[in-house]
């Protein structure tokens, strides 16, 4: 018999290369973070990576009830306080703080204070918040209309998505540059970047306003999720629908064909949980069995190999376990079972798996320190320490790209991932995952 007061993981979140866990204790909740910390996304007041979970000092005693990750930033919702905290990479206003500075200590968002939050989602550079009243707010980068405001102007503070007034928004999800939501009526709306059909309206155009997905008439959607450039919906009966980019078979249809309207997934039934990664997708059925499909270069599908998974495969490393929480980052995955065990797998170059090392894992590996029965709250709180917060403007941290290429004898003074033309996925796939060790690190450009 388990003790109901025993510390356990009640929330998970994954960013591009960092992870968060929310721990329930008899005296309140504790937020832990680990992985890449260059942009302050771990919330410890510095820019250092962490290979093991560390408690976020400033959130102890704040009553945090939900945690979320964007690509290089993080959010926490304190339900009792009716407050949202954000921290990490701040360019384009994705933190909602009113400016574009990086934030290294969780910062409350005055614009959202006093609002009861129902659902939050973080994309690459934008954020959505649905309130208990059914209103939707958006902030951050908006170059593809992903904020749903009818324009392409970035938003540094939360703005009401007026196009959905009259609808009661219950669930939200963000891809890299597109957004989606479900309403109390079970309708699905999408907007933002639409090149590969991820809007679900049958077209390949960006949408600057929420647009109703086609092919779901009469279906009451209960869950929504996004991968980098694909969309996922699950109805009240557990049927799963996917659409958008499919170059890595991430839509779970057994092929690499883009879908421009929602298409039902036949290989996985009675779905209870879904998670969209950068180019892969995971789903858990009502029995807690996990299935994975898509890009698997770093083992993020958890099937024991690094070959892409075209036809959905069950994650055998979790056989006998019932998964009740499931989250995916760009290249790594976290899961919690009904017995309270936490597993992680996939990419680990920044320690985002939490296993005190940087070795990738092709199969689920238990993170014992965060598994029920082993969580040492006293040790976590003692190791937590306040660090003086500081902010850095993006202009001071970015590697500036010159207007012209240097001459043959010039020595570059910075390094970035090469820019890739939008839509050139072959070129995108060729971009190295990490910068060369021989070149000083710099803030990376996104494709």
TrEMBL record:
Under the heading SUPFAM superfamilies, the entry gives: RCC1/BLIP-II
Keyword Repeat annotated: yes
Q: Where are the RCC repeats?
A: 29-80, 82-133, 134-185, 186-237, 238-287, 288-339, 340-403
Q: Which domain of life is it from?
A: Eukaryota
| Residue spans crossing the bilayer | none
Pfam families with a match to the protein in the record: RCC1, WD40_RLD
RCC1-like domain location, by residue? Answer: 6-277
What keywords sit in the KW lines? Repeat
Write the protein's name: RCC1-like domain-containing protein
């Amino acid at each position: 018999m388990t003790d109901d007061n025993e510390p356990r993981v009640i929330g998970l979140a994954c960013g591009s290369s960092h992870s968060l866990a929310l721990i329930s204790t008899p005296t309140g909740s504790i937020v832990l973070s680990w992985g890449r910390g260059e942009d302050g996304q771990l919330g410890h007041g510095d820019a250092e990576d962490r290979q093991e979970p560390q408690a976020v000092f400033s959130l102890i005693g704040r009553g945090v009830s939900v945690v979320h990750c964007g690509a290089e930033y993080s959010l926490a919702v304190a339900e009792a306080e009716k407050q949202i905290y954000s921290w990490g990479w701040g360019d384009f206003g994705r933190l909602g703080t009113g400016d574009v500075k990086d934030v290294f200590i969780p910062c409350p968002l005055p614009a959202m204070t006093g609002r009861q939050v129902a659902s939050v989602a973080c994309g690459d550079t934008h954020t959505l918040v649905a309130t208990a009243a059914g209103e939707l707010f958006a902030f951050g980068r908006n170059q593809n209309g992903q904020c749903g405001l009818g324009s392409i102007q970035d938003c540094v503070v939360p703005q009401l998505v007026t196009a959905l007034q009259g609808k009661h928004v219950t669930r939200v999800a963000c891809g890299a540059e597109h957004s989606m939501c479900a309403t109390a009526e079970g309708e699905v709306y999408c907007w933002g970047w639409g090149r590969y059909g991820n809007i679900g309206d049958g077209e390949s155009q960006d949408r600057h306003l929420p647009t109703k997905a086609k092919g779901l008439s009469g279906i009451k959607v209960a869950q929504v999720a996004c991968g980098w450039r694909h969309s996922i919906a699950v109805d009240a009966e557990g049927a799963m629908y996917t659409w958008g980019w499919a170059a890595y078979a991430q839509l779970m249809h057994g092929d690499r064909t883009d879908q421009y309207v929602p298409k039902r997934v036949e290989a996985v039934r009675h779905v209870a949980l879904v998670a969209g990664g950068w180019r892969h997708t995971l789903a858990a059925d009502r029995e807690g069995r996990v299935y994975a499909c898509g890009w698997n270069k770093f083992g993020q599908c958890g099937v024991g190999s690094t070959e892409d998974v075209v036809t959905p495969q069950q994650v055998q490393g979790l056989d006998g376990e019932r998964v009740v929480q499931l989250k995916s980052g760009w290249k790594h995955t976290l899961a919690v079972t009904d017995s309270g065990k936490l597993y992680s797998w996939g990419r680990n170059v920044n320690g985002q798996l939490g296993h005190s090392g940087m070795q990738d894992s092709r199969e689920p590996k238990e993170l014992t320190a965060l598994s029920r029965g082993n969580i040492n709250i006293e040790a976590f709180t003692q190791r937590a320490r306040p660090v003086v917060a500081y902010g850095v403007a993006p202009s001071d941290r970015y590697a500036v790209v010159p207007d012209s290429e240097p001459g043959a004898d010039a020595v570059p003074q910075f390094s970035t991932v090469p820019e890739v033309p939008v839509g050139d996925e072959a070129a995108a796939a060729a971009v190295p995952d990490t910068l060369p060790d021989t070149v000083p690190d710099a803030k990376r450009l996104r494709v």
